[in-house]
Amino acid sequence: MGEPLRGALRGVYFGALGGERPVDGFRVMVAVTMTAAGAAFFLAWMVYGRLPAGPARTLTAGQVGTVSSRFGARVGGGTGVTCTRPRMPGGGGVFAAALPLQTLPARRDDHYNLDAGGVTWRTAFEEPAAGVLLEGPAGPAWNEGVAAPSVEVQELPEQWVSRDGDTLVVAAWPHSDGAGHPGSAEYARARTAVHRDGVLVAEADAAAGVFEVPPEPGGKGWVSLRATAEGLEQATLRAYPFAP
Description:
This protein has strands spanning 21-36, 39-51, 64-71, 80-87, 98-101, 106-113, 120-127, 132-137, 141-142, 148-150, 161-164, 167-170, 173-176, 183-184, 189-196, 199-204, 209-212, 225-233. It has a five-stranded mixed beta sheet with strand order 1-2-6-3-9, with no helix packed on it. It is flat. It contains no helices and 18 strands. By secondary structure, the chain is an all-beta fold.
């Protein structure tokens, strides 16, 4: 079974006031985020058919998986922050606690319980000094490599380029990191253009846009639409290396 985890988990209590009650069709996620020097704990459990009161868990080292995470820097000497939020099976989640990082680049051991019952975790990383914001599934490498566009699995219907009737949404994140986490950053210049059969029909001085693309007079539909982002410039694309 292994020895129980101690220290960082001691003295944490959560749950409803009063006694536990059965509730048909009810589901609830019990989640907690904690941090210690160089480490963070992301713990969650699903409870079905009852409203829990005073739930208690004893975790051993064998019930916890560890991801050794690296957080790179685009601006030397800057700091970072992460928000890792849990999501229930089938959708639905809660707020996330913001965990500050030491001076970037930084390392942290992230611990997840393995008996989460299908709960998944998604992280947002921010480097304020560079205006960098990245999002994606929890993983070992963040904010490293050359920034480039990414079209990761959709969270929202309009990602990443979509059309709804006469409205075309171009919302690809142009400054994703080497691991493919969709990201954005401050930029000096950008242009998004929409072409129909090679002819420019709409444009915007931004890295994304919402465009109206109604049918042509005479009933001919819009076909072969192409959206491009070009001229995107950012001054701070350097990836600062980790110390050996």
